[in-house]
């Protein structure tokens, strides 16, 4: 798992997703559902053993990135997850959904 900042957004998320899909979890410390989803995503990253990289972005600490992605996908709430493949956001989901639904995603 990696934490995304303005400094590593380009290298770790955009360029990194050219090699391995990156699931970006946009969350905040005060968000209850985010606290439920986080451990589920971390477990799935371990379970999937390198088939994707989990990246976390604190919406309060890096609002420039979170607001841009929210506008792009028309989403106004968190947790909000976006899958990046080949440097591009390809799909996403909103809310603390169960692990089996994330696997389908």
Helix/strand layout:
Elements: E1 2-3, H1 9-15, E2 22-27, H2 32-47, E3 53-58, H3 63-73, E4 80-85, E5 88-94, H4 99-104
Parallel strand pairs: 1-3, 2-3
Antiparallel strand pairs: 2-4, 4-5
Description:
The chain is an alpha/beta fold. It has one domain (2-104): Glutaredoxin (3-Layer(aba) Sandwich). Helix content is 38%, strand content 26%. It contains four helices and five strands. The chain has a five-stranded mixed β-sheet with strand order 1-3-2-4-5, sandwiched between helices. Strand 4 (80-85) and strand 5 form a beta hairpin. The longest helix is centred in the middle third of the chain and has 16 residues, at 32-47. The chain is globular and about 30 Å long. The protein starts with a strand and ends with a helix. The model has no long low-confidence stretch (mean pLDDT 93).
């Amino acid at each position: 798992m990696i934490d995304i900042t303005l400094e590593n957004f380009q290298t770790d998320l955009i360029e990194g997703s050219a090699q391995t899909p990156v699931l970006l979890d946009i969350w905040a410390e005060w968000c209850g559902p985010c606290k439920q989803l986080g451990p589920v995503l971390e477990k799935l990253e371990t379970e999937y053993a390198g088939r994707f990289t989990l990246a976390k972005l604190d919406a309060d600490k890096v609002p420039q990135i979170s607001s841009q992605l929210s506008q792009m996908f028309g989403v106004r709430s968190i947790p909000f997850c976006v899958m990046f493949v080949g440097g591009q956001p390809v799909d996403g989901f909103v809310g603390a959904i169960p692990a089996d639904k994330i696997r389908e995603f």
